[in-house]
Write a structure and sequence with these properties.
This is DNA repair protein RAD51 homolog 3. By secondary structure, this protein is an alpha/beta fold. It is about 30% helix and about 25% strand. A hairpin with a 6-residue loop joins strand 9 and strand 10.
Length: about 280
């Protein structure tokens, strides 16, 4: 897989940045603390691998002080292009996070799970025109009194399928979307998550099938971090494909009624056996 060259300045700027916890310590460790604020991270995988569940978890985690590493909390913007946003699922994750927070050492803090839901601003975009129009208007939210710590686009691949014409036009739109999102991330110190699909291809030399992210080779240069989610034989793995200074690696995780968790973690009845997910 083609990778963008990383400069010493990239590494220096990356270190010490605010991070948003995934609620899986193993995934956080894989990412050196969690999802970094100020950059674009890609999460890709097959249907059911857990992409949307992880995005919902992060939308809640961005608001929780015990989930933020070295930074202030803030709300989330969730841009849904596939209809995979499930409010009741977000509610379950918020309730579990609220319960976890109450059990933390900071007994003076008060968190209302209903407030967590109010702080997730939702947009539904059906095509690339809707998506571009939406993200171009996001600056107004940042300029308001509302503090935003996370932008989720779930997914970028779906609206690009609606683009008629050759690949050059899709590339143009992809670059435009990423440019706007990265500027928002940099200017307003928020994390950006973009989910992506996978496609099955055949190795011409060996005839073996393999999966690869969609959006083309050029896309691989754009996200700072690329995280693949895999679900095979009832086992889930988070696989780090690209990072400015972390080695590639893989860790197991599970999806519970309360959200993303480590496989060996059970939290006072909030968790249950792994559930189906997007």
């Amino acid at each position: 897989m083609t990778k963008r060259n990383i400069s010493a300045l990239d590494v220096l700027n990356f270190e010490g940045k605010e991070k948003i916890s995934t609620y899986s310590k193993k995934i956080d460790d894989l990412l050196d603390g969690g999802i970094p604020v100020g950059y674009l991270t890609e999460i890709f995988g097959n249907p059911g691998s857990g992409k949307s569940n992880l995005c919902l978890q992060l939308a809640i985690a961005a608001q929780m002080s015990h989930s933020m590493k070295a930074g202030e909390t803030g709300g989330a913007i969730y841009i849904d292009t596939e209809g995979s946003f499930i409010p009741i699922r977000l509610y379950d994750i918020a309730v579990a996070a609220h319960s976890h927070y109450k059990m933390s050492r900071d007994t003076s803090a008060q968190v209302d799970h209903r407030k967590l839901l109010e702080n997730v601003t939702y947009f539904r975009c059906l095509n690339i025109t809707n998506l571009i129009s939406c993200i171009m208007q996001l600056k107004a939210l940042f300029l308001s009194e509302k503090k935003i710590k996370l932008i989720v686009v779930d997914s970028l691949a779906h609206p690009l399928r609606t683009v008629e014409g050759d690949n050059s036009l899709r590339t143009k739109y992809t670059t435009m979307v990423v440019s706007i999102l990265q500027k928002l991330a940099t200017d307003y110190k928020c994390a950006v998550i973009v989910t992506n699909h996978t496609a099955t291809k055949v190795d011409s030399s060996h005839g073996e099938k393999y999966t690869t992210p969609t959006l083309g080779e050029m896309w691989g240069h754009l996200p700072l971090i690329r995280l693949k989610l895999s679900w095979k034989n009832n086992c889930r793995d988070a696989i780090l494909i690209k990072s400015p200074h972390q080695p590639e690696g893989s860790v197991p995780f599970q999806i519970t009624a309360g959200g993303i968790r480590d496989v060996d973690t059970v939290t006072n009845g909030n968790d249950c056996p792994d559930v189906d997910s997007n």
